Structures are given as structure tokens and as C-alpha cells.
Structures
1.
Amino acid sequence: MKCKICGESANIKLDYCGLKLCKPHFIEYIQKRVKRTIKRYQMVRKEDTIAVALSGGKDSQALLHILKQIYVDSNKLIGIHIDLGINDYSQESAKFVRILCDELEVPVHVINIKEEYNFTIDNAKKSKKIRRPICGICGLVKRYVLNVFARKYKADVLATGHVMDDEVSVLLSNLVNGNFEQLIRGGPFLPSDDVSMVARIKPLYEISELETTLYSHFNNIPFIEITCPYDVKATVSSYKQVTNKLEEMQPGSRYLLLRNYIKIYKKALKDYNTEIQQELCYCKVCGGPTIRDICAFCSLRKKMEGNE
Ligand code: AMP
Ligand code: FES
Ligand code: ZN
Ligand code: ZN
């Protein structure tokens, strides 16, 4: 098997396009594709500071590495990691984030939610006052805290490491469950509706998990290999199984589904949805954006008071 670009021995064959590539040309190919995604969805302006949300996992670590190559001497990059207080898992995650940021010379801020908000995800898991699954609570905390600190550090956009596999399975789940709002707001670029919100981008939207895994290995990128102890993701993973099977039977179908969702369906849904716009107001406690009197994060904090 020979690399299509240089004719040297190839390390990988991409099933969805038949391309055979050696290590250096695979690395170059992934960086080019991410650059294309950023351009295609107009995610970043020349003067923007990009905050990269780093979990310590392979996807967001690979994302930082790719962005560092793309913006080698232009846009400013900063890393943000949230220490969620999940026992040893959080300590390990922070360790990998710091190692990579040191290596790439990217400034990093580690936000400890125990210090900032006086509770941890471990506390929330044990609390009898909280009935929602812990992953949902954790997602809420991450969204809120990332937005607050991205603004604090003057970032214009917040980049997360969501990859194509996650995005396709979430899309299928939203379709099956009729989550109209999420279908309208989903996609690779969520512009800021208000000064209180930082725009969110997903530069790995068109890159698969297999590709970020290979990219990380080929570049010796350090990342945490253990998964979160609370990671069940039971329903999403059944959607993931289905979409992975579809990809196996019809290579390239996941990419096509996402492209058509953005190009055709999302646009049509937006045009159709004229009256369901909920008015944005500001939380009475923290001043952040919400559709209620008190935002979901402040309600959670209230429940966690005295719940050490
Ligand atoms: P997940 O929701 O765990 O699948 O993570 C999706 C994305 O959210 C990751 O690729 C990161 O960009 C971001 N993220 C997840 N956990 C953290 C964390 N503890 N700190 C900062 N960003 C995170
Ligand atoms: Fe949030 Fe596991 S990382 S519950
Ligand atoms: Zn080559
Ligand atoms: Zn609030």
C-alpha cells in the first residue's frame, strides 16, 4: 500500500474516500480538513482569541495540537480545563492537559469548581436532592463554567473537541426524540446571541474519532486513557452503534448526513420556526443568560449548599 501523495509506504487507508496515506501526509490531511471546516462555517475571524476547552481526552488534546499548527503565528490560543472534582479522574485529566499545554506553549487556566462554587460533581452524585442523571448535571456545569471563564479571559470563541461520531449520534437521537429546539440550535457553530455568551465552535465536526485517535498516536499527544467513572451514556451509545454500523455499510454516510443537516434541514427548520423564540433574560443571582428567573446553574448551586 503506497501513499497517494509521496508514494512511500502508507500507514492508513481511509475507507470513506479510498485515500491511502503515510504518517506525515495523514497529519497534514487532517490539519487541512479542520482548516476547511473552520473556513466553511466561518468559525474564526483573524483577530479572534480562541479558548480551547480541554478535557484531557484524546479529542480535545488533538484539537489543541491541530489549532496550534493552523494558527502558528496568528490567532491567540488559550486552554481552559475544568477540574470537576471527580476523584482521581479529575486529577489525572488536569495532569494531561498541563503536559500538552506546556509542550505547545499554550497558556492554560485550570478552574477548580470546588474552589469557585463550593461543590464538586462527586458531591452532586451523592446528593439526595439531585434526581437528574449525573452526566446531565455535569454537562450543565461544564457549559456554564466554560462560558463564564472564556469571557473572563477575553476569548471571542470557545472551541470544543466534539467529533463527527458524537455529533451524528446526537443528531439521530434528536430526530428520534423530536428535540426540535436542539435540532435548530445544533451544528458546528453556535454564534453568540448576547454579550453574556461566547460563540461556540466545533472544529472537529467533520473529523471522526478514529482519525483523532490516529492523529494523537502519530503525534505522540499525551491524553488520559481512562474514562470518567460516571460515564454511562447508555442511550447515546446505542445511537452511536447504529451510526457506526451505517458508516461500516456505507462509508461516508455520517459526513453526508451532517452536511445535509446543516445545508438543507437546519435551514428549513429555522425558517419554519418563527414563533417558538423564547425571550432571553438575565439570572437574578449571577446575571448570566437564562430563560427563567434563576438560571439552571444557580438553581443547582442552591441545591448543593451545605451538601459537602
Ligand atoms: P464530553 O461532553 O465529555 O463528550 O466533552 C465534549 C467536549 O467538551 C470536549 O471535547 C472538551 O472540549 C469539552 N470538555 C469536556 N470536559 C471538559 C473539562 N473538564 N474541562 C474543559 N472542557 C471540557
Ligand atoms: Fe462529567 Fe463524567 S465527565 S459525569
Ligand atoms: Zn506520503
Ligand atoms: Zn445564574
Note: Residues 285 and 298 are 7 Å apart (CA to CA).
2.
Amino acid sequence: MRRKIVAGNWKMNKSFPDAEELIAEIADKLESMDTGHQDVILCPPYVYLEMATDIAEESVFSVGSQNMNENDTGAYTGEISGPMLTSMEVEYCIIGHSERRKYFGEDYALLAKKVDAALRNGIRPIFCCGEVLPEREAGRHFEIVKKQLDESLFHLTAEQFQQAVIAYEPVWAIGTGVNATPAQAQEMHAYIREQVASKYGESLASETSILYGGSCNASNARELFSQADVDGGLIGGASLKADEFLRIVTSF
Ligand code: 13P
């Protein structure tokens, strides 16, 4: 059975004390919740990862980073590597987020290297894909998502691919308050699963968790997650408050 997952991408938010308070509150509340059927992943900024993994040791959530460098070590001032993340017990890394593609020029080839770096270090990539509005309006959304998968993820062997989680995040839905409709999400998730099936076979496709991201919140999560191919969410803004985030966690 593929896993249901709710992951919080905090992006560049929160001071250290606020981050610590939020993570502690989430951990505290998770203790009295039945989360046996879903995985919870928190992706705070790099500088809070060690604090997060310390708290995670006594809790049921896992910790992910929002990015990583494609090299394992060396003269790359300001960068964070896979071995550094692994040494802090970080289990996941978001790779290919549209904000990294847009603001940091991360292209297909670089993202493929980052996916490799994650796997080389035992970190599970949460690989993001999704089209911008003009691409959807032009009816090119399937083609765009296919290209993103083909160029940066589908070079993996089946054994490596098993470790990956996919997140479909239509860029026009991120931070806009306009989520994809459940039907739009389902249509794309089914398409992504089909692509995985044609590359890796039906069995692996049916085990792959495909998350939805883009203005997903406590009010719309249940309907989105009820779609057959939507296995949970990658949550931005709504992951910054414990109660709202945990309402999403229990929206299956
Ligand atoms: P929002 O939930 O704020 O729209 O962000 C989604 C996102 O980008 C998660 O990675």
C-alpha cells in the first residue's frame, strides 16, 4: 500500500524561537493523534533542521530539507550537502520546487544531479513538478510535467525510484489562494502515475506517493485527498500554524 503523506514546506519563514515553538507544538499534538496511516514530514529552513530532528527523535514526524547541493563536499560557499543533511538525520529533501527553478535558475540537468545526490546519501527526494498558468492555458500542462519527470527523475533505476515521492504543484496555485480543483488535481495525478507505470511498471506506479501542492489548506484538503491518485499534500502557507497543519494531516 502506498503511503499517505502530508509534508510542510515552510519556505523562508519563522525565527528560531518561533520555529522551535511550532515544531514542539506539532510534536505535542501528534502524540495524541492517530497518525498510523499517514506520514508527516516537516521541511523547515536549513538552520532549524538539527533542532527539528532532535524533536523528531521523540515524535512520529520526519524531517526534510527544502534544497541541497548536488556535490557532496568542497568549495561551494554557502551551500549545504547531502552528507551534512544525513549527519543531522534528515530523511527527505524537496527537489525541483518551482521557486528554485524560477529564482535560482535550477534547470533539468541540475535537478537530475540533485536527485542523484539525495539518493547517494540515503535521502528521499520529494520531486516537484508543475506547469505555469500560460502553459495550462495553452493546454500544454501534461507535456510540461512529462518533460520535468523525463529530464530530472526518470533516469533513475527502479530501485532508486522507489525512494522518490512526487509532488504535483501547479505554479499558478502556489501562494495564490486558488487551488487546483480536485478534478484537475486527479487528472494530472493519474497522468503522472501513468507516466511512472510506462517507465517503471504498474506495480511500482501503484506504490508511488503523489502529493498535491498549491493553496492546499484545512478547508480543501479533504476533497483533494479523496481523489484516487492524490496521496496527500505538500503544504506551504497552511503548514505554518500547528492547528491548521494538523487538520490537513487528518484530512484523509
Ligand atoms: P502554498 O501552500 O503556500 O500555496 O505553497 C505550496 C508550496 O509551494 C509547497 O511547496
Note: The domain at 4-249 is CATH 3.20.20.70 (TIM Barrel).
